[in-house]
Amino acid sequence: MKKPTPDPAGERVVAPKAKPFTLRADAPHLPAVFSVAEHAAVQALAAGAASPEQQQLALDWIIHKACRTYDLSFRWPDDPTGLGMAFAQGRTFAGQQIVRMLNTRLVLETRPATEEPK
Hints:
This protein is mainly α. It has helices spanning about 35-45, 50-65, 85-105; strands spanning about 5, 15.
């Protein structure tokens, strides 16, 4: 990054001009797209009234579109803030937690309420 250069008259500092930036359609901070069916499925899931098909559709939307669980988190250096990769990684992490819960065996243990989970 260029450092500010003094004005030829020596009165003020001239900041370097920012590079032009085009917002990519896959920018990680943009909201996930959804269809009417996906929208209804997520709302029905939240209300506890989703059919089995709606439950699957809602989870599929959450894992694949909202969290982008299986997308690559790396962002090219054209991101002026450099935070795109961190934001994408946060989305991915949320999806990974959901997938982990779906793919691991549920273990029901009896332990005192004060004991920390292992």
